[in-house]
Each structure stands twice: as structure tokens, then as C-alpha cells.
């Protein structure tokens, strides 16, 4: 997945792979919301 994201960014911009940083940050469902509703409230 990280390679796919990196390649997509490079294909759509002039960035080289060395300048692309992909950060994966797993969050608890009660630490983020979509449309103003916590994800923990929709599960």
C-alpha cells in the first residue's frame, strides 16, 4: 500500500520518491469523526 501511494503521488506530481513521506497512524475510533460523528458512535 505504501509503495502504491508513493507511486501515485510521484505520477501525479513532480516529486521524487525520496521526497515522499507516507505516515500510517492508526487511531482509536473515539479519536476521530466523519461528518461530525465519532466513528465509535457508528460502530
From TrEMBL:
Highest taxon above the source species: Bacteria
Isomerase listed as a keyword: yes
Transmembrane segments: none
Domain 4-oxalocrotonate tautomerase-like as annotated: residue spans: 4-41
UniProt KW keywords: Isomerase
Pfam family, one: Tautomerase
InterPro entries: 4-OT-like_dom, Tautomerase/MIF_sf
Keyword Isomerase: yes
Protein name: Tautomerase family protein
Species this chain originates from: Bombilactobacillus thymidiniphilus
Classification of source organism: Bacteria, Bacillati, Bacillota, Bacilli, Lactobacillales
Amino acid at each position: 500500500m505504501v509503495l502504491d501511494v508513493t507511486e501515485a503521488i510521484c505520477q501525479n506530481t513532480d516529486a521524487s520518491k525520496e521526497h515522499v513521506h507516507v505516515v500510517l497512524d492508526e487511531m482509536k475510533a473515539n479519536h476521530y469523526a466523519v461528518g461530525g460523528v465519532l466513528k465509535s458512535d457508528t460502530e
